Amino acid sequence: MTPITGLDLTGFTEREPGVWTDTAGVVLSVHFFPLVPDLPAPPHETDRLRAGLARNVAAAGGGLIEAVPGAVDGVPAVRQLVKVPLPGRRGQAFLASWTVPRAGCSTVVKVQAAEGATTGMREAVVMAEVGPADYFRPHPYAGGGQLGGLPYHVGDDERWDARFPGHPLTLVRAALHRITPTVTLDERFKALPPFGGQAPAPQAPTPQAPPRRGWFRRGGA
User: Fold this and answer.
1) Is residue 71, in this structure, part of any structural domain at all?
2) For 169, which of 21, 74, 91, 163 is 20 to 30 Å away at the CA?
3) Residue 171 domain-assigned?
4) What share of residues in the chain are helix, strand, coil (percent, to 5)?
5) If you count DSSP H runs as helices and E runs as strands, how many of each does the chain have, helices first?
6) Is residue 113 part of a domain?
7) Does residue 218 belong to any structural domain of this protein?
């Protein structure tokens, strides 16, 4: 159960409650966490939020491609695009998500996809075009330095997506862009106190009755 009451699932097939996939291998999932969000700062503190998220992702061995404050159904949120190494084999997985934090809980919409047998083609083509010297860049959220984890480079820029329409990074970025305007949130969740990045606040109240099967509405189909 999540406070998400509407979401356009066109093209997706349900695999289990809260998880859908499409024919390109993109996995869409929704989540609710009845805990104080672990974000390093509230969405409006952009620099502190980005720096903290970048450090956290790098410490886990991945790389934060971007973190962008915004809103989902009018509620302040942060959009993240992350890459992580695939365990046990070459290649990367890409995760695009919105985290919508409130004072004592959060909800997340996430899309993810992984590279298949062919890996590194996008990176190789872009590096050949821009040159090795201009390919790797200091992480923009690290004050001109490096963070460890997967390196930051221009091959992940959105401007290359049209050249690589089937790449998992292109797919998850496009899927989240398409889905975002269709997300609607329960009014009780929207009315909760905002996340301030301070001391833990009381958790959201737990509904006494289980949700009806139709509580999560499929739209756009």
Assistant:
1) yes
2) 74
3) yes
4) 25, 30, 45
5) 5, 10
6) yes
7) no
- Largest Cα separation within the chain, whole Å, is 60
Task: Give the pTM.
Answer: 0.87
Which residues partner with 84 through β-bridges?
93
Distances (CA, A) of 98 to 106, 133, 148, 177, 213: 10, 33, 24, 10, 24
- What is the C-alpha separation between 177 and 173, in angstroms, rounded? 6
Q: Quick: pLDDT tens for 180-208.
A: 999 999 999 999 999 997 544 444 444 44
Model confidence pLDDT, tens digit, residues 41-82 = 999 999 999 999 999 999 999 999 999 999 999 999 999 999
Work out the angle at residue 132's Cα, subtended by the Cα atoms of residues 65 and 68, and round it to the nearest 5 degrees.
15
Q: Which residues contact 173 (CB under 8 A, 6 or more apart)?
A: 81, 94, 96, 158, 161
Structural domain boundaries, residue 72: 4-191
d(CA 26, CA 91): 16
Query: With bands split at pLDDT 50, 70 and 90, how would you rate the model's confidence at 219?
Result: very low
> Which phi and psi (to 5°) does residue 136 adopt?
-85, 135
3-state secondary structure of 219: strand
